[in-house]
Amino acid sequence: MRVLLVEDHPDLARWLAGWLEQSGYVVERIERGDDADLALTTNRYDVVVLDLSLPGLDGLDVLKRLRDRGDNTPVLVLTARGAKDDRVRGLNLGADDYLPKPFELDELEARLRALLRRSNAQTPRLKIGRLVLDTLEREVTLDGRALSLTPRETAVLEALAARLGRPVSRETVFNRVFEFDSDARIESIEIYVHRLRKKIEGSGATITTLRGLGYALSVEG
Prior knowledge:
By secondary structure, the chain is α/β, with parallel strands linked by helices. It has helices at 10-22, 33-42, 59-68, 84-92, 105-121, 151-161, 170-177, 189-199; strands at residues 2-6, 26-30, 47-50, 75-79, 97-100, 125-128, 131-134, 139-142, 145-146, 205-210, 214-219.
């Protein structure tokens, strides 16, 4: 499970990241709110642990922007703020849970696991023409039969399906497909889009290249 940890206190961030990694999570640490907003725009995470008092952009603003984009990634708000108004505002903006500092590590892990279970239970099976994309199992079927896609081709489909009918920038698709490959070049994304386009021919779903905007997945008719 991939966790975005947004915490501006370096010692606390290192401590939490180390503990989460020992528990089997893949952790990306970010200290600034504006950097977190950019990361959430371009990458996919299973859960976000978000402090409220951040430099660059307040945590509540990061949360609001995330939900305004239609992104339902689970968010656990982690903060020293104790005022009721802050808790209420965070929950109203779309936070899934709220854990004030100080806290016990066991409680944090229990809450994260609960959010992940809830998120996985609600993960939809997306129907795109005659295709069905299971975003939990990362499997694609055509007319009920498994479609042979590579992991990177599946990642392209997931990135486009998340904004069905709307443009998705080449950079966004690239970051989804090559999120753990720092040596990849952005031009290589064209290869995977081309392969996927051929494999889904006749499914009722089409991928259009939009000059200057990226790509769009749409359903015929």
